[in-house]
Specification:
By secondary structure, the protein is an alpha+beta fold. It is built from 4 helices and 13 strands. A hairpin with a 2-residue loop joins strand 10 and strand 11.
Length: 249
């Protein structure tokens, strides 16, 4: 992501024409979003994917800890994820209005409602399409910031400002136009949080390309959690009750 300045005088002398050339050839936001939608399978295929269930594993501590992983998403914006280890299952869910969790690994076996700040990440996870698709309808704004090196790939960088003010930088592969990285900036409990997510191993499910490798963590952190998807089941019947906060009987 970093470049060295070489031959400063030559670069400075050529800066004018280089900038002009880039301006003439730079893609627009609409062009990049259209290519992203097409790369994912097209608008019709995306709309037809109403729900999906992912099964796989979550790797922590550089793979030394492995948990069973299950995530279910359903339109218009519901999600539930479960991670299981040694008979204990942690749950995080969002029903479109309220987020909640069960955290047995922290000694909390009863469901707890999540704060609005803590729910932000679940609202993003609930998106089957990602932040670029239908961004205008979502009330977001998008700006093209040029290209940036992502682990050796000169990716297109887009800045998305969501309706709630959160910012996500989306990096598109220059050839496939699929997301290879996102960096989300949000305020949680009064503090600025920056989360970096790398996406890869895309597979076509019900006509839509979805990432089967997701590695995420605080930007700059030495270790990130990695999710490896083994199976994705599209358009399954899902009871909305699994997303809602459990009520005592």
């Amino acid at each position: 992501m970093y470049s060295r300045l070489i031959l400063v005088s030559i670069v400075s002398a050529l800066a004018g024409p280089v900038v002009l050339a880039q301006d003439k050839t730079a893609p627009t936001v609409n062009e990049l979003v259209a290519k992203n939608v097409a790369a994912k399978g097209g608008a019709d295929a995306l709309r037809a994917l109403q729900s999906v269930r992912f099964t796989g594993k979550m790797l922590l501590n550089e793979g030394q800890i492995q948990l069973a992983y299950l995530e279910t998403k359903k339109r218009p914006g519901e999600v539930r994820s479960e991670v299981t280890l040694q008979g204990m299952t942690a749950v995080q869910a969002y029903d479109g209005a309220q987020g909640w969790k069960i955290s047995p690994f922290q000694g909390r076996k009863d469901p707890e409602k999540m704060s609005a700040d803590d729910t932000k990440s679940l609202m993003e996870d609930a998106e089957i399409d990602g932040p670029l698709v239908d961004w205008k309808a979502k009330g977001s704004s998008v700006e093209y910031l040029g290209t940036e090196d992502v682990d050796g790939t000169l990716a297109h960088k887009l800045k998305v400002v969501r309706k709630n003010g959160d910012v996500v930088f989306v990096y598109l592969d220059p050839d496939a136009f699929l997301e290879i990285r996102s960096v989300t900036q949000r305020v949680e409990q009064g503090a600025q949080v920056e989360v970096e997510t790398d996406l890869g191993d895309y597979e076509k499910i019900a006509g839509v390309f979805l990432p089967f490798s997701i590695e995420a963590g605080r930007k700059g952190a030495p270790d990130k959690q990695k999710i490896v998807i083994d199976k994705a089941e599209p358009n399954i019947t899902v009871d909305d009750a699994i997303f809602k906060f459990p009520t005592s009987k």
